Backbone:
């Protein structure tokens, strides 16, 4: 399958942005105690630092669906593609529960299991493998229905029975379940709304094969952003958090764009995918030094994802010890990154560390991208 360059560029952009959020999560002074999008307590810089990273997850999931479509068309073999998606999906789910969760918590006892974006993509691949015979237009209609109507599930109360509540949350609702004093399960990326985004990406794959795709990408961007503005202005449906007039005009604007990711609301999806379509359109150009740098990260997204989490977490421990804390100060238990209270750095330092992380990983990503390209006969490389 011939790679579509603008997909690699866009993935590279969102991979770089993603690292900012994770550096902030683990190192920023108020990350353990403050919601950066809470307009009552946040600052503009902190809000935008968090808000811009909302772009990442829907772009990953959407483009995973698009890549699945391109693979399907390239292989032109239903059985082969189904087997690939099944094995790839199960592998991603296993990675999330093991290697990725260990990167989050550095806890050999695995007292916290959080099902996030890698798990959602894995489940999506498994589900998609059974839908390959369905015409793309029908899958696109199903995707639209899920994205538009998922908000209605907020009117359904979560079951009181714990097993039923976990099942409902796994499908529809972000939730955290303290199942025992020493074990916490989190359904941060409920599979149904994220599967809707993946189906949308799969259905959109044909557009990226067209010679005039840049025109269609701009149309998709303006349409999604236009719908966002109209529906958000009505302020009735599309997001559980309505916008409201704030203490200043600027904070009213922030309220307007402050949409819900957990789970992804209709307005969140329209806004972030609208921006993603714009990046895809801007990236649909002849390669140059800058786009090649971005595409390097985008060619090896899972490799980068795994490495960046481990690097950032090790840097967090380095910060903790540099600030005078010892092993006895490291909190241990469910939902703990291992960072003591009163530790952390300010936002400018977060940005410096973020830049260092991205630059440090570049030569590794470039090496691995070249190694993969030169060793396409090694099948297991396609799973990393």
Residues:
């Amino acid at each position: 399958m011939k790679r579509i360059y603008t997909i690699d560029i866009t993935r590279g952009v969102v991979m770089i942005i993603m690292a900012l959020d994770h550096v902030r999560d683990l190192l920023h002074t108020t990350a353990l105690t403050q919601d950066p999008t809470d307009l009552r307590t946040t600052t503009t810089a902190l809000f935008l630092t968090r808000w811009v990273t909302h772009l990442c997850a829907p772009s990953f999931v959407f483009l995973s669906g698009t890549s699945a479509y391109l693979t399907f068309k390239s292989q032109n073999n239903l059985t082969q593609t189904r087997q690939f998606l099944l094995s790839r999906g199960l592998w991603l789910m296993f990675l999330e529960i093991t290697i990725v969760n260990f990167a989050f918590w550095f806890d050999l006892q695995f007292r916290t299991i959080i099902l996030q974006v890698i798990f959602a993509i894995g489940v999506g691949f498994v589900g998609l493998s059974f839908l390959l015979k369905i015409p793309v237009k029908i899958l696109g209609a199903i995707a639209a229905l899920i994205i538009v109507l998922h908000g209605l599930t907020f009117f359904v109360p979560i079951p009181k029975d714990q097993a039923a509540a976990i099942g409902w949350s796994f499908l529809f609702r972000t939730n955290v379940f303290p199942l025992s004093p020493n074990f916490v399960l989190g359904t941060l990326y409920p599979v149904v709304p994220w599967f809707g985004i993946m189906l949308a990406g799969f259905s959109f794959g044909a557009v990226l094969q067209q010679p005039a795709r840049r025109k269609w990408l701009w149309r998709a961007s303006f349409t999604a952003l236009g719908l966002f503005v109209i529906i958000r202005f009505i302020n009735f449906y599309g997001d559980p958090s309505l916008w409201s007039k704030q203490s200043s005009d600027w904070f009213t604007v922030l309220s307007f764009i402050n949409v819900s990711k957990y789970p992804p609301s209709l307005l969140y999806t329209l806004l972030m995918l609208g921006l993603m379509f714009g990046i895809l359109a801007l990236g649909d150009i002849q390669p140059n030094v800058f786009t090649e740098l971005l595409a390097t990260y985008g060619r090896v997204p899972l490799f980068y994802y795994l490495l960046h989490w481990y690097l950032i977490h090790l840097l967090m421990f380095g910060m903790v010890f540099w600030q005078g804390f010892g092993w006895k100060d490291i909190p241990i238990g469910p939902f703990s990154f291992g960072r003591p209270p009163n530790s952390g750095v300010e936002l400018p330092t977060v940005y410096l560390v973020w830049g260092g992380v991205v630059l440090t990983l570049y030569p590794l990503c470039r090496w691995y991208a070249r190694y993969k390209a030169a060793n396409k006969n090694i099948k297991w490389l396609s799973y990393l």
About this structure: The first helix runs from residue 5 to 27. The chain has a mean pLDDT of 95.
